[in-house]
Write a structure and sequence with these properties.
Layout lengths: L10 H11 L1 H20 L2 H6 L6 H14 L1 H4 L1 H13 L4 H25 L8 H6 L2 E4 L2 E4 L2 H19 L16 H37 L3 H13 L5 H10 L5 E4 L2 E4 L1 H10 L8 H4 L3 H22 L5 H16 L5 H8 L3 H20 L11 H9 L12
Antiparallel strand pairs: 1-2, 3-4
Helix pairs in contact: 1-6, 2-4, 2-19, 6-7, 6-9, 7-9, 7-10, 9-10, 10-11, 11-12, 11-18, 15-16, 15-18
Keywords: Cell membrane, Membrane, Phosphotransferase system, Sugar transport, Transmembrane, Transmembrane helix, Transport
Pfam family, one: PTS_EIIC
Subcellular location: Cell membrane
């Protein structure tokens, strides 16, 4: 029995590649967030009262459908990450890696359920017991809610197994199970063992995440600045996705109870409140890490920087950079993608980029101090319209930005 050893990558290269794998589920999250935002806002009682024509049954059916479709990504967020990570990291047979990622994550949760059952904790429907042990239904399995971090760990382990065994050659009697077929098999075995360890070590991870969240949250209005500045500084290295995912989807971004469910992560809290019919307004402690903080830079600062670069260019060279600046401006304002503009001055004026990062972080703090509550992920004009302008005022008379 032999297996081909995968080419080695440095730790730096690995984290860069890992950050890029987050983009597939994050792109879907952004789209689903817009769908959920439009559907929820236009189907709310307050909007229908202000604009009666929206109460048309056909329109309401469409808006409700949009809300349902939009909630998909947030209901299956860990599953998407455990599939996307091996899919993105694998050099060959990406489909097999993705399939094994799902298998491994499901088996891990089954093993956790086995451990909890043997300890007498499960089965139970006692809400107090479930909450005390952080137990949720995951893929229909009662298991410890490891959130996005558990899915990331599962995805990385499965990727390592895939790279080690996807070319394995077994003895002739077992040849049918060799090659790519062996990857989900070994993944299920290994993740079954990992699932037995999760209940023992997860409290330590939970304490570490909570400690990071406490550090950021205890910084008050300075916390969003730390996050916003850190995200911009990590962006050139491709590591910003890791920080963003930590704040958006884990305890580091806060934990709240929404509609009777305990949810963790700034974006998860916002989306849960968005889809909860009894929620009036959004949590400032969650949205301060979301779209609103980016808007001063994305809708004001970077467009201003593009205009400055155009005017500072020599007159004979302006026509050469005009198209580049316009396309970068559209990508930033409409798509929330800032790299085309930021990378124009990152390498020629790195000190200016550091100043830009600090000002972006300051934008996060300013929006937090002003009590703005605009959620979602991109910080573009679409987020501003859908989650800012379209969010109607609550009975208190304050805008639910």
């Amino acid at each position: 029995m032999t297996a081909k050893t995968a080419p080695k990558v440095t730790l730096w290269e690995f984290f860069q590649q890992l950050g890029k794998t987050f983009m597939l589920p994050v792109a879907l999250l952004s789209f689903c967030g817009i769908m959920l935002g439009i559907g929820s806002s236009l189907s709310s009682h307050d909007v229908i009262t202000l604009i009666p024509v929206l109460g048309n049954p056909v329109l309401q059916a469409i808006f409700t459908w949009m809300s349902k479709i939009g909630s998909f990504a947030f209901s299956f967020l860990p599953v998407m990450f455990c599939i996307a990570i091996p899919l993105g990291l694998a050099r060959e047979n990406k489909g097999v890696a993705a399939f094994a990622g799902f298998v491994g994550y499901a088996v891990m949760n089954l093993a956790v359920n086995f451990w909890l059952t043997n300890k007498g904790i499960l089965p139970t429907t006692d809400a107090a017991v479930l909450k005390a042990n952080n137990i949720q239904s995951i893929l229909g399995i009662q298991s410890i809610d490891t959130g996005i971090l558990g899915a990331v760990i599962a995805g990385i382990i499965v990727w390592m197994l895939h790279e080690r065994f996807h070319n394995i050659r077994l003895p002739d009697a077992l040849a049918f199970f060799g090659g790519t077929r062996f990857v989900p098999i070994i993944s299920s075995l290994v993740m079954g063992l990992v699932g037995l360890v999760i209940p023992l070590v997860w409290p330590i991870f939970a304490m570490g995440i909570s400690g990071l969240g406490h550090m950021i949250n205890s910084a008050g209005d300075f916390g969003p600045m730390l996050f916003g500045t850190g995200e911009r500084l990590l962006l050139p290295f491709g590591l910003h996705h890791i920080l963003v995912a930590l704040i958006r989807f884990t305890d580091a971004g806060g934990t709240q109870e929404v509609c009777g469910q305990t949810v963790s992560g700034a974006l998860t809290i916002f989306q849960a409140q968005l889809s909860c019919p009894t929620t009036h307004g959004f949590s400032e402690s969650a949205t301060r890490f979301l779209s609103q903080g980016k808007m001063p830079a994305f809708l004001g600062g970077l467009p201003g920087a593009a205009l400055a670069m155009y005017h500072c260019a020599r007159p004979e060279n302006r026509h050469k950079i005009k198209g580049l600046l316009i396309s970068g401006l559209i990508a930033c304002v409409v798509g929330g993608t800032t790299e085309p503009l930021e990378f124009l001055f990152l390498f020629v004026a790195p000190v200016l980029y550091v100043i830009h990062a600090l000002l972006t972080g300051l934008g996060f703090t300013v929006m937090s101090v002003l009590g703005v509550t605009i959620g979602n992920t991109d910080g573009n004009i679409i987020d501003f319209v859908v989650f800012g302008i379209c969010m109607v005022c609550q009975p208190s008379g304050t805008w639910c930005q």
